Amino acid sequence: MSDRFFAIPFAVAFSFLSSSEFRASAQEAKQMDFIDAHVHVWTPDTGKYPLAPGYKKESMKPASFTPEELFKHCKPAGVGRINLIQMSFYGFDNSYMLDTIARYPHVFVGTAVINPLGKDPAREMDDLAKKGVRAFRIHPKLSEQTIDKWLRPEGYQKMFAAGARNNQAMACLIGTEALPELDRMCTAYPDTPVIIDHLARICATGVIRAEDVDRLCAMAKHKKVMVKIGAFYALGKKRAPYIDLIPVIKKTVAAFGPRRCMWESDCPFQVQGEHTYQASVDLVRRHLDFLSDDDKDWLLRKTAESFFFAK
Questions:
Q1: Number of H helices, E strands in the chain
Q2: CATH architecture of 34-308
């Protein structure tokens, strides 16, 4: 059910509170509308939703991460809406993600994976737009090219053109070594929305290199490029509260502006071992002191809302 459904009843229900109590309640309600820009879900039911060639049930770790299991983590942290990312287990078959969106249309939108080398990827994008798909995950392995030419296949030209036409993003799972070729395509297709996942995996090795940060920040010259700030469990020292990542985040947000940065958890991987969902949210809420409250609202809600949930 839509969060907007509760807007008027909420105001009426709390009309008897003092002004300070009402502000606190309103702030709490606002925090319940955070948006997670990056989550994977899957089901153990491989009969109904077969795995792609090369994957086995043992590949699924955890064995299950359904929407209902996700809600146990995200709802207590104030996250009410989510952009789902097609899981690699399913290859180009987006059925489980699409069925999940159809079950919870006010909660989920999706980022699909299609074959850029297929017969008509642009038509697939058109068709999937009607089913709640707002973006398409792309990465070098899909193109069967070297890293310096990973966007050269003709199918990517069709996808970038369709992305501009439909306002559907190219969601890039890449490291900084893939950015020069993306830079070329963004120059050729300046109206195509582009999202760079996981801070372009900067410092995934545990080492923060200034040249990697500079290369990512240089992409800010393209006005349609956005960045996901998250997957903290996999970056830097890989330990909560993840404050070693603050300098990288600060430079990235300064380059792109908070209106082109969006927080992501990368669940379920964020909730394994010692890592928690709340710790990922709290890095933005409690530790990024260089951001104003409004800036944090853009990272935690408004950037993703303006793109993924725009009416």
A1: 12, 8
A2: Alpha-Beta Barrel (3.20)
Taken as a whole, the chain contains a residue count of 311
- Report DSSP letters for 68-113, one per residue: HHHHHHHTTTTEEEEEEE--GGGTT--HHHHHHHHHSTTTEEEEE-
What is the distance between the alpha carbons of residues 90 and 296, in angstroms, rounded to a whole number?
34
* 119 vs 132: CA distance, rounded Å: 22
**Residue-level pLDDT at 32:** 58
Task: Retrieve residue 96's tokens.
Answer: 């489980």
Q: Where do we find the tokens 């059925």? A: 95
How many angstroms separate the CA atoms of 146 and 40, rounded? 27
CA distances from 47 to 57, 132, 263 (A): 11, 24, 34
CA-based nearest residue to 83, from 274, 92, 74: 74
Residue spans of the domains in the chain: they are: 34-308
The span from the CA of 114 to the CA of 136, in Å, is 7
Q: Are 170 and 210 in contact (CB under 8 A)?
A: no
Structure-block tokens of residue 286: 């409690």
Question: What is the spatial distance between Cα 194 and Cα 139, in angstroms, rounded to a whole number?
Answer: 12
- Total-model pTM: 0.89
82-107: per-residue pLDDT in tens?
A: 999 999 999 999 999 999 999 999 99
DSSP-derived secondary structure letter, 287: I
Q: Which pair of structure tokens corresponds to residue 109?
A: 């939108």
Arithmetic mean of pLDDT, 222-229: 98
175-187: pLDDT as tens digits? 999 999 999 999 9
Categorize the per-residue pLDDT at 144 as very low, low, confident or very high, splitting at 50, 70 and 90: confident
